[in-house]
Amino acid sequence: MDVNIFKNLALWCLLQQAIMISSNTVALKEPDYVNMNITIRNAMTGLIRPEIVYRCQSKRKDYGWHRQTKPGMQFSFPIILIKGESKIPAIHICYFRSALGTATLVIENTYLDAEMCPKSSCAHVATPKGIVFRGLEWDFKTVFPKLKPVEYLELPWTPWPNRT
User: Would you indicate the residue range of the signal peptide (predicted)?
Assistant: First the structure.
């Protein structure tokens, strides 16, 4: 009879340990999604009318029209990206209007972009030249790739048509 008590006690201890290990792995598991912000800034300096108006939308959500009347203003809207789906982008289309013309920008973000641009560190900036991307990108020219700051023109302004 003593042998059965020890067997049952050992089995109970193993079962408790298995339950504790499985509950710890569930608690330590990373979430399956990551939050990211798309940031739009106004940098239309040197103009009489430096304001921009824009509207961003995705397949599932329309963020509405926004107006930034002064350079230096910014607006961020959150998006959620699924981990492990680095090839499936979240696509947003943004329509910009300014005194210099119009621009329609397609923004594709993946989970890897969210890793590169934490806390709105990457932005799409409206400048007199057009829409400029300011953020981080991978530099593969070195032996060990690292993130480097970049700035490039994504899209120039399309001038308004002449009115007669």
Answer: 1-27
